[in-house]
Design a protein that fits this description.
This protein has about 700 residues and is α+β, with helices and mostly antiparallel strands. It folds into 4 domains: about 220 residues, no CATH class; about 90 residues, Beta Barrel (OB fold (Dihydrolipoamide Acetyltransferase, E2P)); about 170 residues, no CATH class; about 60 residues, SH3 type barrels. Strands 1, 2, 3, 4, 5, 7, 8 and 9 form an 8-stranded mixed beta sheet that branches. A 5-stranded antiparallel beta sheet has the order 14-13-12-15-18. It starts with a helix and ends with a strand.
């Protein structure tokens, strides 16, 4: 039967059988016991065990049409797979397959421990390039050992191609299989006999032994084959007769149970992942194998660089690591949580930072092509503090240190940051130019080193160390030093558009001394203002509050206009009294509405009417006029963030300061003040948000 027809029949007839869930995912090795060889004919002993293999080890169930996914890693890595299987059937040469094929059941990874690669796989005889045993007979039930190249074919399927067939036969041993015997007498049960020829010998000598596997595989030479009719039923007939049914089991790439795996380190990466603002650290490894069996699982894999890996310290290329994992519930081709890391390659321990940003800086320092200057500077700060790679880092910094003065643009380019960060450092008072001409400001090389360290302050330990050296403050520092609520500090910083000097990508934000000065000045102004509870104010009748009306007005007591007029005059400044003199004169003739004079009121009314201004002026008016004049001439001295001083005249110092502070806190409104520059004498307009401090002249 043609191979394609055999496979078609094998897979299409699965529905005829009832399902059976017994698994066949393990190849067990039957062996001839040495004691039996002493008491029994060797040929009979070997063939009896081979028949047991046919009964016990050959597949008994129809399995799903497999893509042989466990062969994929060998194809991806271009690695030859060492395998062991059982000969299940042979197809004779035909028009499409001129040399016939071998059906290998339960092909398994053959290394430390047998682990099945797939339930069956086909090997064309013309892909057998060389035999380890010159004249090799094969019978159904023989174990076969080989080394094969893996190729991809069809729709993502994988199979064996160029093969070195090392041996075929049975195992012997005392209490376990120990020796693989190839040349036992199969009597007349053999089905195919393979032989080397001059071409295969030459190919093996010139290419395989010189480890030129590619040339060995591409060579057209293959072994010679001679066939004999089989005494055993064909594969599909045997399964039909067994009536065992079909199995739904598909061998996964990664086992669903936890296993130990080993891998070879390639390098670390800082990778940008979708929907994540910052880069994530990953460890690239290759040749990921199952620890017990040495089965290759991945040619290459990217592990998340979790804290357990960091505990191993620095990893070098070609280091061997071991870990534990299992397949994710939804995908057998991806590791679930990876734990229990071990370093199997001995070398001196060198620590790496546990802080996420500092560790990203370590990766970028190792691989500058993925780097960002702030992260790299952060790791350099950490490493110098921990005395790790000190000579290498110090040499790098010295090689990058500028030898001449720099502009703000030069600083930004040299540090690999945006120019606005340098400008912010100047506005916040962290750096000061040594020279300023027009729009160009120049800084010395010390400024470069200062900014390099501050930009790299991405973790609490580094920030605390740099706070001992430079005038920098965190948000918590400002709140603590000024007594202002942290949320209010954050809000005001945003309103003033002060950006953290170490970037917006970390929770510890650093600001310069002028930012602290801003909040201290605001606190000082509030402290200088008089306590509102200690100011004595005149209590006036509210104009918008209606007076209670009597239910029965007294007709016998008309309104005393002069009496009310006197009270009104007493509460007004001198200027208003002088201005209102004609009005008092005008009200004098209104006698019809005046009450009758009495002994107590008449003298007082006449005295007030004849000299209203003179009578009240020495008692109340001079004090009121003086207060009014002083309020108009109060001068406030306003200092802006660039330390320019302005004069601002106000009528009421307390009210003016309160209004300015209230306007500065409004995020969507920018109020302007018309002020006088003390230095130049010119009138200027400034924003209330640019005010650093206010004091009364």
């Amino acid at each position: 039967m043609k191979p394609e027809n055999l496979k078609k029949l094998l897979h299409n007839n699965r529905h005829k059988f009832q399902k059976n869930h017994d698994k066949e995912d393990q190849l067990n090795i039957n062996y001839v016991k040495i004691k039996d060889l002493r008491s029994t004919n060797k040929a009979i002993a070997f063939n009896m065990v081979r028949n047991q293999v046919i009964d016990n080890q050959l597949n008994k169930y129809m399995h799903p049409n497999s893509v042989h996914i466990r062969l994929k890693p060998y194809f991806d890595s271009d690695t030859w797979v060492k395998w062991l299987g059982v000969l299940g059937d042979v197809t004779l040469p035909n028009k499409t397959n001129l040399n016939g094929s071998l059906l290998i059941d339960k092909i398994s990874c053959y290394s430390k421990k047998l682990e099945i690669l797939d339930y069956h796989v086909w090997l064309n005889i013309d892909n057998i390039k060389y035999l380890g045993h010159p004249d090799q007979q094969l019978a159904i039930g023989d174990y076969i050992e080989g080394y094969s190249q893996v190729k991809q074919y069809g729709q993502g399927k994988y199979g064996l191609v160029a093969t070195y067939l090392k041996k075929a036969g049975m195992f012997i041993g005392t209490n376990k299989p120990e020796t693989f015997v190839s040349s036992y007498d199969r009597q007349d049960s053999w089905v195919v006999e393979l032989k080397n020829n001059n071409l295969t010998k030459k190919n093996y000598t010139e290419n395989y032994l010189t480890k030129n596997r590619a040339a060995f595989a591409e060579n057209g030479a293959h072994v010679d084959a001679k066939f004999q009719p089989s005494r055993y039923k064909k594969f599909q007939q045997r399964l039909q007769n067994l009536q065992q049914g079909e199995s739904d089991d598909v061998l996964p790439l990664i086992d669903k149970n936890k296993q130990q795996y080993s891998a070879t380190v390639v390098r670390s990466h800082a990778v940008k992942l979708p929907n994540i603002a910052h880069k994530m650290p990953q460890l690239e490894v290759k040749n990921v194998t199952v620890e017990d069996s040495d089965r290759l699982v991945f040619a290459k894999y990217y592990l998340p660089y979790v804290s357990d890996i960091k505990k191993l310290g620095e990893l070098h290329t070609n280091d061997i690591i071991r870990f534990t994992s299992e397949a994710t519930p939804s995908n057998s081709g991806v590791f679930n949580m990876v734990t229990d890391f071990e370093l199997l390659t001995p070398h001196p321990f060198v620590p790496v930072p546990s802080n996420p940003n500092a560790f990203l800086g370590y990766i970028m320092w190792r691989h500058p092509e993925e780097g960002e200057s702030s992260y790299i500077a952060n790791y350099q700060n950490w490493a110098l503090a921990k005395k790790v790679h000190t000579e290498e880092i110090a040499s790098e910094i010295d090689s990058l240190r500028p030898t001449s003065d720099l502009s703000e643009l030069d600083l930004a380019k040299n540090l690999g940051v945006d120019k606005t960060l340098v400008e912010n450092a100047r506005k916040q008072g962290l750096i000061k130019p040594i020279e300023e001409s027009g729009l160009t400001r120049r800084y010395d090389s010390k400024t470069w080193n200062l900014l390099r360290q501050v930009i790299g302050a991405q973790d609490g330990a580094t920030v605390e160390r740099l706070k001992q050296i430079f005038p920098i403050y965190t948000t918590d520092d400002i709140a603590k030093k000024t007594g202002i609520n942290r949320s209010e500090v954050e809000t005001r910083i945003k309103q003033e558009e002060f950006f953290p000097l170490n970037g917006l990508h970390y929770s510890i934000n650093i600001y310069g001394p002028k930012v602290l000065k801003l909040f201290k000045a605001r606190k000082s102004v509030q402290d200088l203002l008089p306590n509102k509870t200690g100011v004595v104010k005149k209590r006036e009748i509210p104009v918008d509050k209606p007076l209670p009306l009597p239910t029965e007005p007294k007709k016998t007591e008309p309104i005393d206009v002069k009496k009310h007029l006197i009270k009104f005059v007493k509460t007004q400044p001198t200027e208003l009294v002088e201005k209102d003199k004609p009005e008092v004169t005008k009200t004098k003739p209104a006698k019809p509405i005046e009450p009758k004079p009495t002994e107590s009121t008449t003298p007082k009314i006449e005295k007030t009417a004849t000299k209203p201004a003179v009578a009240q002026k020495p008692e109340v008016q001079p004090t009121e006029a003086k207060e009014k004049k002083q309020a108009v001439t109060t001068m406030l001295l306003i200092t802006a963030f660039d330390e320019t001083v302005y004069e601002y005249p106000v009528a009421d110092a307390e009210q003016a300061v309160t209004e300015i502070m209230a306007a500065a806190e409004k995020s969507l409104v920018n109020q302007m003040l018309r002020v006088k520059n003390v230095a130049s004498g010119q009138m200027e307009t400034i924003s209330v948000k640019a005010i650093l401090k206010i004091k009364q002249k």
